[in-house]
Amino acid sequence: MNPAQDESRQKLEGFAAENEGGSCCSTSLRRPAQKFDNKSGLLALMGCTVDEDFKASDYLMESLTTPEIAKSDRPNDSAMCLAHGIKDPGRLLDGFGWKDLPKGSVIVDVGGGTGHVSMLLAKTHPQLKLVVQDRHQTIAHGRETKRVELQGHDFFDPQPPRDPPALYLLRFIVHDWADSYAAKILRRLREAAAPTTKLMLIERIIPYACKANDAEYRKSIPGTEDDSVVPKPLLQNLGVVNLNGYLAEIQRTLQEFDRLYAASGWKLVQVHKTKGLASQIIGAPA
Ligand SMILES: C[S@@+](CC[C@H](N)C(=O)[O-])C[C@H]1O[C@@H](n2cnc3c(N)ncnc32)[C@H](O)[C@@H]1O
Prior knowledge:
Structural class: alpha/beta
Number of domains: 3
Order of helices and strands: HHHHHEHEHEEHEHHHEE
Helix content: 25-40%
CATH class of the largest domain: Alpha Beta
Bound molecules: S-adenosylmethionine
Radius of gyration: 21 Å
CATH topology of the largest domain: Rossmann fold
CATH architecture of the largest domain: 3-Layer(aba) Sandwich
Oligomer: single chain
CATH superfamily of the largest domain: Vaccinia Virus protein VP39
Strand order of the largest sheet: 3-2-1-4-5-7-6
Shape: globular
């Protein structure tokens, strides 16, 4: 092993040791501004590439196809700012009528990480109660508040006993899972739902490559009118099939979401477009 290889190996070992010990997460939480002090630099590079750049690239299409900002040179209109909610963090949640939910309504944020989305909801809508569910290892890094409860739970298991919530929220969950797994996650929620419980997936709905002859179908689901702005001769989906191949994600079209809901006891009833790329795809018990 030459000296350069040896140095790389040592850096990688240091990186692994730090993560295994958990010091990276705890330091980040306690002193975020100092989280990379005295580190090899590899951590910062990974954070920048995976957490910042990858997320920004997901918003490139939006920044290039939204007429008001497509030619803008303002920093806040860049894909990076859109992706990280720098301009308007609430934009992640716009669309759905959160304020119309009655006082005390419970929302279960399934696969909610350490609770960043629920914290935002709790802050903007004081009448709501939030339950964040995620794997035990993840939830251990979160922090409870009076209105945000944290619960270690595997979403493939039956829901823990509780009164059925007003809404199950799954933001950026099912795009990681093929239909058979995604349907199992949704079926678990359906089993625990009341007739009034709603399901909300926040996901990107992939446009078809060509104009589809589906105007009648779209009329039956509010919020799904075709408002594509992609100019000819570009494909309507801007080559997103290619993107799926690279990222190994399972992004779905409207009809694929419809079928997923039907396979798990839900019915797709409405879509709210947000200012970001993702839509809020609302289901009700079938
Ligand atoms: C792409 S992240 C989305 C996180 C969050 N909903 C958001 O919008 O930022 C997927 C989440 O699913 C969680 N997850 C993965 N497998 C899980 C499982 N079997 N049970 C519960 N949560 C799981 C991960 O820990 C992670 O927090």
